[in-house]
């Protein structure tokens, strides 16, 4: 066999092998979460352990509104696959790790406070909205009233305040924000519109941000307003904290899913829609947020899809 024949034969073998590898990879991608659950007998959900009342750890177990919704999804998967003994594992994730773990296939669904953005939609899919939230701010009750008035919109600065002109408030104002969230970008944009400049410090979780506010190393913590309200009422700083009476942005929360898994997304949206149309959503909502008002009821009725 001459050198050219040997080369062509080797190339053919290499291409066939590569095709087999690519075919196996394509099959794995196309399989999706439901097929994987059928084969392995297991589903893995990621949940934020620091985002009460949406997702948190209670007595060593996952709890919260988003977690409860994911448990409804788990029940639907069991029924869909006729696998009543399907194992459901909840894995704690952080604001920065949740999407990485989802992209790697180490979790099958993210159950927390995920905001769909155009940038995130390039890599992930999202369920129907599960809540309409927004960016809020929390301070110490005895914090600087001038800062509180500016944040609450009771004072309209005529020129940039705080970092640019520390004499206006007599201090450099440091704001904490949880890294890896949409809050940081929306916070900076909202403050920029109000001609407010601040030193922003990223923290790993809400507990660290609250501690900075309590020990006065940060004047304010920005985050998801429902989470801040819960922390001010039931967290370690209860009685010492005040949530500002306004939202800086309005953002929907949703459950994050792997990109392109249409079977899983349909099952999740069907599960949520049926729940939203049932009286059970009122009971579930009351457990974590109190009795739903007219706006909350309208929200669920509006986002639920018809059969």
Quaternary structure classification: single chain
Output the structural class: alpha/beta
What shape does the CA trace take? elongated
Order of helices and strands: HEEEEHEHEHEEEHEEHEEHEHEEHHH
Average pLDDT figure: 84
Indicate the percent of residues in helices.
40-55%
Radius of gyration: 24 Å
Query: Terminal Cα separation, in Å?
Result: 66 Å
Largest sheet: 6 strands, mixed
Count of distinct strands:
16
Which regions are unreliable across 5 or more consecutive residues at pLDDT < 50? 1-30, 158-170
The total of helices stands at: 11
Proportion in β-strands = 15-25%
Task: Write structural notes for this entry.
This protein has 307 residues and is an alpha/beta fold. It contains eleven helices and 16 strands. The strands form four sheets. Strands 1, 5, 6, 7, 8 and 16 form a six-stranded mixed beta sheet that branches. A hairpin with a 2-residue loop joins strand 3 and strand 4 (61-63). Helix 2 crosses helix 9. The relative contact order is 0.15. The model is unreliable at 1-30 and 158-170 (pLDDT under 50).
């Amino acid at each position: 066999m001459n050198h050219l024949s040997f080369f062509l034969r080797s190339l053919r073998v290499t291409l066939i092998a590569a095709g087999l590898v690519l075919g196996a990879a394509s099959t794995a991608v196309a399989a999706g979460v439901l097929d994987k659950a059928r084969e392995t007998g297991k589903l893995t959900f990621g949940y934020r352990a620091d985002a009460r009342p949406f997702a948190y750890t209670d007595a060593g177990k996952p709890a919260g509104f988003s977690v409860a919704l994911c448990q409804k999804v788990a029940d639907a998967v069991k029924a869909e696959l006729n696998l009543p003994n399907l194992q459901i594992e909840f894995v704690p994730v952080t604001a920065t790790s949740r999407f990485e773990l989802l992209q790697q296939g180490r979790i099958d669904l993210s159950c927390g406070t995920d905001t769909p953005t155009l940038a995130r939609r390039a890599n992930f899919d999202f369920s129907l909205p599960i809540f309409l939230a927004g960016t809020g701010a929390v301070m110490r009750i005895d914090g600087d009233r001038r800062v509180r008035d500016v944040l609450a919109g009771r004072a309209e600065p005529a020129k940039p305040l705080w970092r640019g002109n520390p004499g206006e408030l007599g201090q450099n104002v440091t704001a904490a924000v949880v890294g890896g969230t949409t809050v940081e970008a929306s916070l900076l944009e909202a403050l920029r519109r109000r001609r407010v400049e601040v030193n922003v410090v990223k923290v790993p979780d809400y507990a660290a941000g609250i501690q900075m506010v309590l020990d006065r190393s940060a004047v304010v913590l920005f985050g998801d307003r429902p989470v801040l309200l819960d922390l001010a009422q039931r967290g370690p700083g209860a009685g010492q904290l005040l949530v500002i009476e306004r939202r800086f942005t309005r953002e929907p929360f949703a459950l994050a899913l792997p990109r392109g898994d249409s079977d899983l997304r349909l099952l999740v949206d069907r599960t949520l829609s049926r729940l939203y149309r049932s009286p059970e959503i009122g009971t579930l909502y009351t457990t974590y947020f109190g009795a739903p008002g007219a706006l909350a009821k309208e929200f669920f009725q509006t986002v639920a899809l018809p059969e």
